Amino acid sequence: MSKNEHWIDLRSDTVTQPSEAMRAAMAAADVGDDVYGDDPAVNRLQDYAADLFGYEAGMFAPSGTQTNLIALMAHCARGDEYLVGQEAHTYKYEGGGAAVLGSIQPQPIANQADGSILLSDIEAYIKPDDMHFARTRLLALENTIGGRVLPQDYVKAATDFAHSRGLATHLDGARICNAAVKNGTSLREAVKGFDTVSVCLSKGLGAPVGSVLLGPKAFIEQGKRWRKMLGGGMRQAGVLAAAAHYALEHNVQRLAEDHDNAAVLAQGLSQIEALKVHAPQTNIFWIDVPAAACEPLREALARARIRATVGPRMRLVTHLDVSAADVARTVEVFQAFFADWRAQ
Ligand SMILES: *Cc1c(COP(=O)(O)O)cnc(C)c1O
């Protein structure tokens, strides 16, 4: 796509382009072979992220799918199981990797409307120590989940409960920075209670590639073996780590703009009678679109250079390459489309 052909892309916050300043940081990175632990930019990122979130150690990996899988494989052995939400990314959107590659049984549990999993359900699904059952080892939560922020007191209650029952806790914190910014808490506060956390740098934070896994030093060392086995051992990865570092240093607080833009977009779309808008908490929300409108809406948006995943239940995502002006234009395009559509 040429730079002067501006498309408004509302499909995901993964579509952001690295800024000039981020590219400059990448170009200037000192690099080495990270499989030998020799890449200074990777090491700096790992130390910086660990300190920022309050963990002993960190590990940079190519994707959040990989940092989650590494965490699951380091927490659980063959024949163990982890408790996870039905709607969770690790369970639903990672190709079943824990089962396929980790020999770990997922025990999915219904998510409540706010994204939480009931403590009574967690309790009910913990298996007794009996040879008939997989060994329940881990509770994995996700925050934000589908754009929803888990309540802080819920996170404390759920992680305390898991620990009291001898389970470890992992957070899929792909968008934990959105949750912290929304709640106005520090990143350390937002991850409190979790033994380990995976954070995506390539979503709203705007890095082109990469996630970090954070946890105790011995856990991260063990994780590095799994990372190598899974094909995630990278060499001069400092060019990527420099972008990720830049993202963590510069792009966390600005997530508030994405939340504001999502709120304005949702408010504008909610004026359209044909749509049902599920109000956003952060940068991701859903609207219900009449099925018959989907195909023509897709075409109208494409003509207006707006990319979106159009469907009867349609997800819209704001991010650092969507401006307030883009939001206003998107609302106009929707309004014009539905004015016509209703007239037909
Ligand atoms: C994107 C995402 C991941 C995985 O990230 P990839 O880098 O795409 O592999 C994990 N969890 C959640 C909630 C995500 O949104």
From TrEMBL:
Cofactor(s) needed by this chain: pyridoxal 5'-phosphate
Domain Aromatic amino acid beta-eliminating lyase/threonine aldolase, residue spans: 9-289
Family annotation (InterPro entries): ArAA_b-elim_lyase/Thr_aldolase, Low_specificity_L-TA-like, PyrdxlP-dep_Trfase, PyrdxlP-dep_Trfase_major, PyrdxlP-dep_Trfase_small
GO MF term list: lyase activity
Top-tier EC class: lyase
EC number: 4.1.2.48
Keyword annotations: Lyase, Pyridoxal phosphate
Domain of life: Bacteria
PANTHER family: L-THREONINE ALDOLASE, L-THREONINE ALDOLASE-RELATED
Family in the record: Belongs to the threonine aldolase family.
Self-association and partners: Homotetramer.
Name of the molecule in the record: Low-specificity L-threonine aldolase
